[in-house]
Structure formats: structure tokens, C-alpha cells
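hey can u run this one w/ zinc ion bound, need the C-alpha cells asap thx
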Amino acid sequence: MAADRDSSPNSDFLDDWDDLDFPDDIISDRSRRVNVDTRPQRGEAASTPTRRRPPPAGRHQAPARHAAPARTAAKRRLASSEPIPAPARDQPSGQKHRPIAKKRRRRRLILCLSLVFVVAAAFVLHNLLVFRVKDFQVSSPAADRQVLSWKSAGGIEAYDIFDGDGELLAEVSAEDGPQYMVDGLESATRYTYSISAVNSFFGKRLSRAVTCSAYTLPEAVSAMTALNSGTGVLLSWEDCGAGGYEVEYADVSGEEQTLDAKAGDAEGFSIPDLQEGAQYMFNIRSFIQDGDSRVYSGWTSSEPITAARAADMTGVRVDEPMVALTFDDGPDYEDCTERILAALKEYGGHATFFQIGIRSADLPEKLTNMLKAGHEIGCHTYDHAHYGDEVTPDDILSADDAIEQACGQRPTVFRSPGGMTTDLIRSVCVDEHMPIFYWSIDTEDWKSRNADSVCKAVMNHVKDGDIILMHNVYESTADAVERIVPFLAEKGYQMVTVSQLVQAKTGKPPVPGTQYITANITN
Ligand code: ZN
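ok here u go:
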């Protein structure tokens, strides 16, 4: 702590004091003088030695440690009116210049080190931030290709792109743009890439690799079929190996509905409770799950479909021969209907009964029995009084009401008296969601009233897909049916309703307002 001592005025003073040649009486009172009062006391001579008296000649020089600082010495000279000598270069005061030079050298060193640090920091920052590739990602994904893109930066000559195994895929020059397309990929597969920048300043040295990964899209659904199913629609499509499917359609109010379908739903996905007669178009896309998000394919759309009530196809073998037996003008007031129903029941057959409204109102139990046995009930006008152009909308509507009243179910199909159809009839049938059925075999049972004749008409001409016309109001017809039904069963014909026939043969329910002559022939 020599410096502290040298720079302390109190210690300087004490050192100087030690160098003075005081009389013993004064020395004995030294501490009091120093600490209390240095002014001359009363009675003391003005020439009483003080600390300001110069040392006597011939006294030894004080050691450098005890040398008074220049400021103290100057004060002393001032007090003793001595002239102030010019400081010599080699005097003790020159020792002050050495720390200053040291300080300058130290400053220069710090400056140099700072510069080195700044350059190094700039180098590191450039390497870490600028030279590193940014925003490396997969954009514009597809099922069989991926486009890699990134943000270009100055000073980069090229980019090396590697696949997930670290194999070099491509070296893309900076001029080719900050993107690269990888094609020939598998669909619905996750691919990983990494990219490094190459800078000529560093030779072939690469920057730190940046990685990204993404799924290729799943395959889009190649085709979708929409079929009426009950009062809904049954969708089916080719399973493309996706994790799941998303089905979209607009309901009657125009509001978009979205449903999730599982991978196993491709063979049949039911959309229930659609409005009968309303037209729908369905869109579907596949997806794979990627964490919490989904990767979607493009959309595939179905053909527009009019929701119609579809037949229950339980027990129908669509690839085997079938015919539709149809009975008009009933129900009868005798037991013809019961005999026909019994014959069909014995052979597991079903038929369609186009009934008259007023008779249905009289004989509701017969209609109820038909429905219970799985047969189909059609409308044949209210009282069979009008034909062709004479048929009024009320002839149809009041019959529908009477039949619904009788058995609890509105007719699902229509046959005009005599088979004559008009635009008005078709229009009413569209509104009532009823397809119209003519026939391909007319037994003329009403004319012949002969069972043999009726049997011949069927047995000699029947073929797959026929619609056979009879009436459940003649005993002769009931006789004929009791022979025809076993015959058809033996020949391998299924006996089905008209709606089942068309749906089995065309894959779709019959269309309201359209008249069918056979399953495949309309007019
Ligand atoms: Zn009739």
C-alpha cells in the first residue's frame, strides 16, 4: 500500500515531521502539536522551528520512499519563499510517466482484443444465422412428389440436399432458385430431408444441416358410387389405403355436412335420413393422421343422386333370375287375395299389389296382411273410373290417402288404369315419390277368366326381369297363381316386388315419375 501512503497528505506530513531536527522539549510535546494546534503559542519566538523549516545543510537525503510528493514540496517552498526549480527529467517526479505509458499500452491491447472479438463474433453469427438455411420446408405436397423450398441468403453458392438416410439427393445452385422437386415417391409416406449451404468463402465447407419432413398425400378416391338406401344413401368407393375418409354433402337446407368414415367403410357407408326426392352430391377425400392434424388427398365427387326410398333387398339374390308378379284392382271382396298370399308364402315369393283406394278403405285388413308378408302396395287410383287423360291428380292423391289410412303406409309405386300414362300423371307421381309400372307379360286374366290361359301366358313366355300383369279379384286368377308360383320356383325364378326387381337389375331404386316396362326398359 505504498501508493496509498505516498498519496496521503497525513502520512506525508508525518514523514516530513520525522525529518525535522526539533529540540527535545518540542519533540516531547510532538503529538499534542500535531493533533491539536500547529499555530505559534503565546510567548513562543517567531523563529520557533516549525515543520516548514528546511532541513539543515549536510543532512542526508531522504530515501525515495520518504520523498515528499511534488505538491507537498511545492507548498513547502512556497511557505519558505524558495524559488521553484524546474523539474528535471531524472527527478523522482519522472516516475509518474511510467504508469501512463503502461496504461496506453494496456488500452491498445484491449482495443486489439476487442477488434479480434468483434471479428470472431461476426464470423460465428454469420455462420450460425446468415449462412444457415432458413425456412426449409415441404411445400405443394402431392401423392407422388414433394417440392422442397427454403429462404435464399446472400453469399451462398449452392445447396446440398440429402434424404433421410443422409444420401446426397441433389446439389442445387443458388441460381436455380430456392426450391427442389423430389418425385417418384410413395403416397401417404413420411419423408425426411436435410439441407446444407455451400459457400465459396469457406470452400466446400457446409453450413449446419437443417432438416424437415412431411407426408406425401394419400391417393384420392378413384370413384364413388351413391345408391339410395331406405330413405338415405349408401356410398361405396375403392379403398385407397388411407387412414380414413371425410365425406361432405349439403343437406336440404344447403348447410354443409361433414362425416368421418373409417378405412373399412369403403364397401358401404350409409348416410341416413335424407329428404326423399331431394338431389344430393357427395364429395369424399382420404386422409392420414399426422399427430393431431390430418393430411388430405384431393376431393372426389359423386354423380348427383335423388334420394329415393330404396327397397329392402333382404333375401334377394341379385345375380339370379327373378320376375315381378303384379296384381291390380283389389283388394277383392272374396278370398282371392288370401289364396294368392298363401301361395306366395309357401314358396317364399313376394308380389306387388296395385290397389284401388275405395276398396282399400273397405278392406284395410287385406292391405295390412300384404304389408306384414313383405309385399309391396301400389296405387291404382281411387275408384278406377278414369283412364289416360281423364286421370286427375285427385284420383291419385285420394287413393294414396285411403291406402295410407287403411294400412299405415303410403303407396310406393303407381300403375295407371289400363296402363295409360300422361305427363300429368308422371308429374303427380314425382311429387308423391312413386315410380310407374307397366308390364312385359299381360295374362289377360280379366278377359279370359281362365286359369289355363293365364298359366300358359306366363309359363310360355316368362324370362328374367319380366313384370307380369294379373288381377287379384278373380277366382280363376287365384287358381292360376297356385300353379304359376310353384312353376316359377322350380324354374329358379325369384318372385320379387317391382322395386326389388329394378334395384336388383339396375343397381338403383326405380326413379319416381318414370314408367318401367321391364326392369331395364322404361318409357
Ligand atoms: Zn286396373
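Residues 1-82, 84-91 have pLDDT under 50 and may be disordered. anyway lmk if its weird
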